[in-house]
Amino acid sequence: MLPFFEPEKRKILWIFSIALAALVGGFSGTVTSLVVLRFPGIVEGSGRSALVTEDPEKSETEDSATIRAVEKISPAVVSILIKKPVPEEPLSSEGLFDSFFFWDGEGSVQKENEAMVPEEAWVEVGGGTGFFVAQDGLLVTNKHVVSDGEAIYSIVTNDGRTFPVEVVSQDPLLDIAVLRVPVSSVPTEGFPTVRFGDADRLQIGQTVIAIGNTLSEYRNTVTRGIISGINRRVSAFGWEEEYELIEGAIQTDAAINPGNSGGPLATISGEVIGMNTAINPDGEGIGFAIPINEVEQAVASVRETGRIVRPWLGVRFVMLTPEEAEAKGVSSAGALLVEGSEGEPAVVSESPAEKAGLREGDVILRVNGKELGIDATLSRVIRSSRPGERVVLDVRRGEDLFILQAVLEEFTSEEE
Q: Is 144 a catalytic residue?
């Protein structure tokens, strides 16, 4: 299902590592048109209304650039199909609606019974979007698109070919999954791939395009918009109220719809700078994408270790601005270690943080000399490290300043 977001909502973070970030979308990107809409105006002295454009040459240039970008990216974009056995009892209308956004498990058949179900009895129950990052068949999408262990997945390429895919690894923290076309099914010429950009260099107002399998029906739909915000921190909730925090998210007004999850968000130069992952249902033109830098890290981890590995520090914290620090009576801005909303400890037992000597109420000011702040949160800085790496923490405890060292560990699902 496509997660929904409550923008800018600061929550106490379950940070185990965190590689969270980037946060951290159903980068789900889809789109419906390449046309730049213009507002109708009145031409004075003409006696009739007419469509007026401020700068026709500029419009033509932007349209041409968009078309070229789509031509570069589209061959690498795929529609992901989700199939499950026909349930013994018909799904309710509510169940059908949920499965449209991504299967929620209603009416599912147990895994051990799959071998007894003939292939023709499997039906398409949902879909999403993905894109190739390597010619050998490695591709990426959102974790929530392929999270059902009882489903089988396949892809349809831009030129209409269908291939089976297997889930290689799902990110333990972010809404990212890496898939692969089996070696035996990879064509001799390989697959077309996208070119990565740098999400850290994005500017608000920059033109972007999104491509995706809109509504799991209209494949490779294209929409255009702008970057509306960067470094957003949003709280994502699925239909079952499953919570996930995404930091560093890219906000865009390019149309993103159910089925676009996992699709690329790209610049008009044809560089992919994000993975579409979520929308805000309370407003129009509010979509979010995971920065492509996070996806690159996940792919590199799979290449190196065979799975997505994220580091873990083991603290719960809230990022404080100078004003917030003053209001709380804390002498410094930074990452304030606090108890969770349900009484969970600020410092996890036997975690790297506890072993390093961190305590509830400590404020982490810097990590490896990098000053922490709203745009450089503790989790975003930690995620750039690796398990086993030693990090130096500048800490304030009351009026005392001191340095601690922590050896990061690998985050595992049990620690959620």
A: yes
